[in-house]
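Model it.
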Amino acid sequence: MTAPRQNKVAYFYDSEFSTFYFGQNHPMKPHRLTMTHQLVLGYELHKHMDMFRAVKAQPSQLGQFHSPEYIELLAHVTPDNMSEHGAAMNRHNFNEDCPVFDGLFEYCRLYAGASIQGAVRLNHKLCNTAINWSGGLHHAKKSEASGFCYVNDLVLGILELLKYHARVLYVDIDIHHGDGVEEAFYLTDRVLTVSFHKYGDFFFPGTGDIKDIGEQRGRYYSLNVPLKDGTDDKTFHALFKPVMTKVMEVFQPGAIVMQCGADSLANDRLGCFNLSTRGHGEAVAFMKTFNVPMLVTGGGGYTKHNVARCWAWETALLVEQQVPEELPETHYHEYYAPDYSLNVAAHRVMDNANKRDVSILSLSYKILYVCRGTLSSSIKKVKYCNAGNLQCLLCSAMHSVFNLAVTLLFCSRSSLRK
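Modeled.
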């Protein structure tokens, strides 16, 4: 008799994803999910987790976040009747980035349903980790499509987790700022959003400045780490690990939602970072070490054979299995030529534009460590029976720390420009 797995992982997928098509020249290719799934099967990772077919979310479930008018449009607009919905499409931001295609609403229901299912299983302690590579569409707003995203499955998953957990942490390592999720929870102290992303040079979506920290009860519950072109593994983790260590120590979430957009990899069609597959996966592995229930999703990623490698590798990390560097034979084997290897290596000659600024950012965040003893002792005195207690703690203990960090950052940057 086989002993029950202590590291229980739930994995969600549906072959229907391969049937959705944004258009010939559109960078978003849902087919990347099939490629990822083939590698997962080829490495026999399915033997180490519970596999589930995604169940489509009902309109009422989507309505937990999205407006009724917007859901109504998603449900009824098709390529054949677009002319009848022109005004509504303009109102809800349908455009070349967010086109209408056959099966659009079913696609949204499918990926959103998988994230909601994952959150439900986490809530009922049926798994420690839930994986939905089809999810992570972090730009969608309450009443708007944005950045290839129509329904914000991450927000829906977090709302589900909040039914059982006083505090939920959201972590985003997509190259684009997680603006839709941050906006949804900008005024609450029950969700802390942390986004590591490219910022500046008019890069989409243009949000995610270090100064954006939340408002009202949510003040100090939005944390943005803006980075520049050429961000590599070393630069990324010089910030990611100390920042997330302190976030986990202070916020103490009951659950984590992690968006693992693969457009932060080197050689991405739309990205400009220089992370390797190993470096990207290291962030996932690091968050796993905290042993907090975690919903892991996909996100961006537009060089599809690299996306598949990345998410297959991260699936292996989450199920704690060693896999060989040589890729298994699949129907898509020729996509991985000429090396047929798992790792996506960083550019050897790509400039890292963070070289001067990264030391400043590191210094800013090190200020958090100065107050480590004070914060730790404060935490021990507080029984977290509700989110309000944490709000009081953060507002009092972190107020001067964050202000000092931001002030130092901008003063230092100003001196560099001179």
